């Protein structure tokens, strides 16, 4: 018995020793470790309010995008209100806020109707679709679409204007993602802001705040290229989180705001929260400022000119299908874009479409003949000063191909300033290794297409200009190859190009170097330049200077003696080239391009001896062919006269 008691005593002493040792280890040896762990559990980092994004300036330092604090009404469903409660709330406050209810679409009305009357619509679904849905042969999304298509206009007649106000408000309350504040109205009135500030205790989820919003001193001028800002798109949520963004950050969504978002975005203040007390651990800062190559005064002037002339053109003959035009102005010695303008007209309403300068393509016509004639020189298929006869070309079993009129014997300069098609046709036949005889079969080597396109690419035609906007088109290259299409390619009647590509082509021709087109000048953080754009030469023309100078002389004669006379004041000492091409439109919207139209282009640089400015204009479908008149409204000439005169001041 005594042995058992002694054993228990020893066991008890050992246990106490282990406990005391463990307590000592936890409270003394590991004290710092557990204090740090406790601190981490009771403290966290908190981000402050979002600070302003960086401003955007033009080349002269004029602010073209700024920030301003605006009163905002927002909603967040923190109280987990049901759809029924949300609808009731929308009806309750619809008359206390002024919104643009015209934005409520028929599609969303159908969504709302289904929300309230799903059982009614479900009875209309045919049995086969219902059975397939139950068997999971039809997805939820597809079944919802079936139901939505069954909602009729008569069904929607139950909603009057008051209902539509509440429905639109409900839409705003649910638009976006759960983690976001749903912005109901920016720039709220004093009365609206006061109502939602004072009443937010019983208007569950509604509240007010001030937030920074973009402000445009020049209104809509260049606005579409500047881009838009907003909440992080759901599909890019993970991508932005990995970059250190907060889910409620404002980000650039399109164009320059998107491309340069990492510079423009602000950095929030970071606080440490310990036991309810905040302490600043990292000071935030507003975003960095962008300085662009754009001259906003020139941009504004060019936009006004294009809008005014587009409006006037609709009273002209044969302009039925003319609905848009594009213009770009650049510095050929650096690739700086000084202005890029696109305008569209529909039912006398003019809208901005400046992005079309890099996305919309067309066959440019004779404007490319400067490059085409250089193909002949550089491939040893044409000699400087060579005389050829301008006469209609006739290949067996094909229609005649002619210039705008028969010019007789002309040399290379006359071919340029008179814009002879036939001169270019004969060069193309030589490049293709063909032998021409009137009304006889003619065969060429298909590699001639590659020869022409390789030269065109050196000038920027058919390749990207390098501009930092992400949706730039390279145009279309025709796949079919025959002698007729090769001749068309040589006069700009086959492949399609954007306005900015034509600008880059003329810029390259004027200097011998192809510069990457760009809109950024530099990025500034307070007074420090953190990124400066260095002009980037994409390629130098591998063409003899004597050939280039010969073509430049021809382009100068275009403006003094030829088809470009009167486009640009001769005091600017311009060179340039006009272009006209045959195009087609789908006039009855049946998917077939059956109506023949005329599209026009023009590109110029000045002064000829030391160029510093290039202007290009493209006008698709300026005219159409009809039985009574072949008149082409002189839109390009009228626009260029006014825009180029800007540089005389």
The strand count comes to 24
Helical content class: 25-40%
CATH architecture annotation name of the domain at 296-648: 3-Layer(aba) Sandwich
The CATH homologous superfamily of the domain at 296-648 is called DD-peptidase/beta-lactamase superfamily
List keywords for this structure.
alpha+beta; 7-stranded mixed sheet; 6-stranded antiparallel sheet; 24 strands; single chain; Beta-lactamase; 649 residues
In terms of topology, how is this protein built?
Blueprint: H1 2-29, H2 31-42, E1 43-47, E2 56-57, E3 63-75, H3 83-93, H4 106-122, H5 127-134, H6 140-149, H7 153-156, H8 161-174, E4 182-186, H9 190-198, E5 206-215, H10 223-226, E6 229-231, H11 237-242, E7 250-252, H12 255-259, H13 261-264, E8 270-274, E9 277-282, E10 289-292, H14 296-313, E11 324-331, E12 336-346, E13 349-352, H15 356-359, E14 361-362, H16 369-378, E15 388-390, E16 408-410, H17 412-417, H18 421-431, H19 447-459, H20 483-490, E17 497-498, H21 499-511, E18 513-515, E19 520-525, E20 528-532, E21 537-540, H22 545-560, E22 575-585, E23 595-606, E24 613-624, H23 635-645
Parallel strand pairs: 2-10
Antiparallel strand pairs: 1-8, 2-3, 3-4, 3-5, 6-7, 8-9, 10-19, 11-12, 11-24, 12-13, 14-17, 15-16, 18-21, 19-20, 22-23, 23-24
């Amino acid at each position: 018995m005594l042995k058992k008691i002694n054993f228990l005593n020893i066991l008890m002493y050992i246990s106490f020793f282990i406990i005391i040792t463990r307590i000592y280890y936890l409270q003394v040896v590991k004290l710092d470790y557990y204090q740090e762990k406790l601190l981490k559990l009771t403290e966290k980092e908190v981000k402050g309010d979002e600070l302003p994004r960086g401003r955007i300036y033009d080349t002269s330092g004029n602010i073209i995008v700024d920030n301003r604090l605006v009163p905002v009404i927002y909603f967040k469903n923190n109280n987990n209100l049901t759809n029924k409660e949300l609808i009731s709330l929308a009806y309750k406050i619809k008359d206390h806020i002024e919104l643009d209810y015209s934005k409520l679409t028929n599609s969303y009305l159908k969504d709302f109707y289904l929300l309230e009357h799903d059982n009614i619509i479900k009875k209309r679904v045919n049995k086969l679709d219902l059975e397939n849905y139950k068997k999971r042969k039809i997805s939820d999304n597809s079944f919802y679409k079936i139901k939505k298509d069954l909602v009729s206009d008569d069904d929607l007649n139950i909603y009057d204007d008051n209902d539509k106000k509440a429905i639109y408000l409900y839409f705003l309350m649910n638009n976006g993602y759960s983690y976001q504040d749903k912005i109901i109205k920016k720039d709220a009135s004093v009365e609206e802001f006061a109502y939602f500030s004072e009443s937010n205790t019983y208007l569950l989820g509604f509240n007010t705040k001030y937030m920074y919003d973009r402000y445009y001193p020049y209104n809509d001028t260049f606005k579409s290229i500047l881009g838009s800002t907003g909440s992080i798109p759901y599909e890019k949520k993970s991508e932005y989180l990995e970059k250190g963004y907060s889910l409620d950050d404002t980000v650039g969504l399109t164009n320059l705001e998107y491309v340069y978002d990492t510079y423009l975005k602000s950095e929030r203040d970071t606080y440490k929260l310990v036991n309810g007390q905040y302490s600043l651990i990292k000071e935030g800062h507003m975003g960095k400022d962008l300085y662009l190559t754009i001259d906003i005064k020139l941009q504004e002037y060019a936009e006004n000119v294009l809008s005014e002339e587009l409006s006037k053109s609709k009273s002209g003959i044969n302009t039925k299908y003319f609905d848009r035009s594009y213009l770009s102005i650049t510095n050929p010695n650096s690739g700086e874009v000084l202005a890029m303008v696109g305008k569209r007209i529909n039912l006398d309403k003019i809208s901005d479409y400046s992005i079309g300068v890099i996305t919309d393509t067309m066959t440019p016509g004779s404007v490319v003949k400067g490059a085409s004639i250089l193909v002949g020189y550089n491939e040893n298929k044409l000699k400087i000063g060579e005389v050829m006869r301008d006469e209609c070309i006739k290949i067996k079993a094909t229609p005649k191909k002619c210039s705008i009129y028969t010019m007789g014997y002309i040399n290379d300069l006359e071919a340029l300033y008179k814009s002879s098609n036939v001169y270019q046709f004969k060069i193309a036949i030589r490049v293709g290794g063909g032998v021409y005889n009137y009304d006889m079969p003619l065969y060429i080597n298909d590699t001639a297409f590659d020869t022409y396109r390789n030269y065109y690419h050196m000038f920027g035609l058919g390749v990207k200009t390098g501009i930092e906007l992400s949706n730039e088109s390279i145009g279309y290259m025709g796949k079919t190859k025959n002698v007729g299409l090769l001749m068309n390619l040589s006069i700009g009647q086959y492949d399609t190009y954007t306005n900015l590509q034509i600008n880059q082509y003329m810029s390259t021709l004027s200097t011998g170097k192809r510069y990457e087109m760009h809109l950024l000048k530099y990025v500034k953080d307070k007074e420090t330049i953190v990124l400066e754009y260095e002009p980037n030469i994409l390629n130098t023309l591998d063409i003899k200077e004597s050939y280039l100078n010969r073509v430049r002389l021809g382009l100068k004669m275009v403006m003094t003696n030829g088809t470009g006379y009167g486009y640009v004041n001769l005091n600017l000492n311009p060179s340039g080239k006009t272009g006209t091409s045959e195009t087609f439109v789908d006039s009855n919207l049946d998917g077939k391009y059956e109506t023949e139209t005329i599209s026009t282009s023009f590109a110029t640089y000045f002064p000829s001896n030391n160029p510093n400015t290039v202007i290009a204009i493209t006008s698709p479908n300026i005219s159409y062919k009809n039985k009574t008149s072949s008149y082409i409204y002189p839109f390009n000439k009228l626009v260029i006269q006014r825009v180029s005169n800007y540089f005389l001041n």
